[in-house]
């Protein structure tokens, strides 16, 4: 139980977690209907090669951390697109982030992007995709940079750079 005079803290470290197996186990754990619905609809698959997470919540409140830090490495990540969210097949990622922003390096070999509301054919096969993504959060403002995105498939090959931020 958190001490009302001190912030609640936590830490999680894990290696080699199978997301499909964890999803099956999660159905037997009282995580709440929202989490169960997400897992059922998006069918996560892949391997969490490593995960390190720490968090600190206000005293007496463990539900909403005010400070956190996550470092993760994933391979073979597959998620079904639903509810307006895109999906992926066979994505690898290294990410490090906290409440102020983060960075992710993404890679895909012979995988696919599932973009149901973007293209006529919802699945876009990717022979290769490599990207670096950075983001910063300051209050209600979010800034995203995609300084490098390289892709290749049977129909196209190219490079993209992108910057985006919420309006003032």
> How would the global form be characterised?
globular
| Lateral arrangement of strands in the main beta sheet | 1-2-3-4-5-6-7-8
Helix content bin: 10-25%
Number of strands: 8
Biggest sheet layout: 8 strands, antiparallel
Return the average pLDDT rounded to an integer. Answer: 90
Explain briefly what this protein structure is.
By secondary structure, the protein is mainly β. Helix content is 11%, strand content 60%.
Task: Please describe what this structure looks like.
It is a single chain. With 168 residues, the protein is mainly beta. Helices cover 11% and strands 60% of the residues. The protein has two helices and eight strands, in the order E-H-H-E-E-E-E-E-E-E. It has helices spanning 19-26, 33-42; strands spanning 8-18, 45-57, 67-79, 87-98, 101-114, 123-138, 141-152, 157-165. It has an eight-stranded antiparallel sheet with strand order 1-2-3-4-5-6-7-8, covered by helices on one side. Strand 5 (101-114) and strand 6 form a beta hairpin. The longest helix has 10 residues, at 33-42.
Essential attributes:
8-stranded antiparallel sheet, 11% helix, globular, 168 residues, mainly beta, 2 helices
Could you outline the blueprint of secondary structure elements for this entry?
Elements: E1 8-18, H1 19-26, H2 33-42, E2 45-57, E3 67-79, E4 87-98, E5 101-114, E6 123-138, E7 141-152, E8 157-165
Antiparallel strand pairs: 1-2, 2-3, 3-4, 4-5, 5-6, 6-7, 7-8
């Amino acid at each position: 139980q958190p001490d009302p005079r001190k912030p609640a803290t936590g830490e999680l470290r894990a290696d080699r977690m199978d997301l499909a197996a964890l999803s099956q186990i999660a159905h037997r754990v009282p995580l709440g209907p929202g989490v169960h619905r997400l897992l059922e609809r998006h069918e996560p698959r892949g391997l969490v090669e490593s995960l390190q997470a720490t968090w600190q919540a206000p005293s007496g409140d463990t539900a909403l951390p005010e400070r956190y830090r996550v470092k993760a490495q994933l391979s073979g990540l597959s998620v079904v697109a639903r509810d307006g969210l895109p999906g992926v097949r066979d994505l690898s990622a290294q990410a490090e982030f906290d409440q102020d922003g983060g960075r992710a390096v993404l890679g895909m070999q012979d995988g696919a992007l599932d973009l149901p509301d973007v293209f006529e054919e919802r699945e876009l096969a990717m022979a290769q995709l490599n990207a670096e993504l950075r983001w910063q959060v300051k209050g209600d403002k979010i800034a995203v940079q995609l300084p490098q995105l390289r892709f290749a498939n049977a129909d196209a090959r190219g490079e993209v750079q992108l910057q985006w931020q919420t309006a003032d």
